Amino acid sequence: MPVVNRIADYAEEMTGWRRHLHRIPELGFDCPQTAAFIAEKLKGFGVDEIHEGLARTGIVAIIEGQGPGPTIGLRADFDALPIPEATGLDYASAHAGKMHACGHDGHSTMLLGAAKYLAETRNFAGKVALIFQPAEETGGGAGVMVEEGVLDRFDIAQVYALHNAPGIEAGSFYTTPGPLMAAVDEFHVHIKGVGGHGAMPHETRDPVVAAVAIAQAFQTIVSRNHYALDDLVVSVTQIHTGTTDNVIPETAYLNGTVRTFDPKVQQMVIERMKTIVAGQALSFGVAAELDYERGYPATVNDTDKTRFAVEVAEEVAGAARVQGESGREMGAEDFAYMLQHRPGAYLFIGQGDSAGLHQPTYDFNDEIAPVGASFFARLVERAQPLAAK
Predict the structure, then answer these.
(1) Where in the chain is the domain with CATH 3.40.630.10?
(2) How much is the average pLDDT of 370-387?
(3) I need a labelling partner for 378 at 20 to 30 A (CA). Which of 55, 240, 256, 263 fits?
(4) Strand, coil or helix: 142
(5) Fold type of domain 5-181+298-383
(6) Would you say 375 and 162 are in contact if contact means Cβ atoms under 8 Å apart?
(7) Is the pLDDT confidence value at 48 over 90?
(8) pLDDT (tens digit, 9 = 90+) per residue, 267-280?
(9) Residue 264: CB partners within 8 Å, gap ≥ 6?
(10) What is the pTM of this model?
(11) How far apart are CA 74 and CA 183, in angstroms?
């Protein structure tokens, strides 16, 4: 069974929803226009319940099936990124410095498409909880929703989500059971030395050379302190210091990320960073402080639910266009918080040829929205079938 015919019928309507959302990108938890548009559509579809104001602007909508049964959760994120858009499209961002550069406008559209179909047909038992979430990019909106008790409040038994994948055949799917994406942490190193004239370095305690030494030493954590077959990435992404060419500055700052799957590897990195920062500070006669922030945990798919989701994807896209053992990758996703508390699966849907995620020329491929909506709809119907009469 390919794309659900009824969903295909309103593909053009879905394109309109998505492009409207694309015009009004909002950041983090502060997404009132986006939430208002989604709530308006859900009301028009005739869903049974709409709960707003979760994680500030998040929404959970409930659709009741025909007869008793459990509740399945479907999640879409809807926040954007602080990137000036460079697509030149007639529906480009109307909010300066913000754009949907990760396709969350498309994710919400796919879930809205499924909502419209499920509210019309109700060809399932139990309930479906449609989770529209802010603050995936920063802030961990999924974690906030879990802390607010969303999974318990609506008695959600299992949860699923999709993310678009540029460069992958449009409408195809891939995922993997078990660990799929890494945990991501941030580190900040603040260095304080003694500044002075560039011609008299002996009178200073130079934070610049200390910053460079710390950055280089951090790279040895991957190459010399962990087993080569354990996935680990340590990236120094910022070094800020100085104001002009003839002044040795007083301070320097380093920042970056650590991506791991194993908590033991994560803890090893923390301990090594503490040792390196302290040792290099002593070596160069400066003061240095490490601020390490644990971020999103690893995204770990439930094995059985992943196999089930792959079967549904094969039904929608064809077995040849679904890869169910794709292996893991080092990106991160806050849906991990929901998967820590409920079994479920996270899948990628091919976006086709396009600019990459988080790029100013990226745009979601509207042609895949009915495919994703069909996947969500069939997931519900397959997971919670009506009893035979």
Answers:
(1) 5-181+298-383
(2) 97
(3) 55
(4) helix
(5) Aminopeptidase (3.40.630)
(6) yes
(7) yes
(8) 999 999 999 999 99
(9) none
(10) 0.94
(11) 22
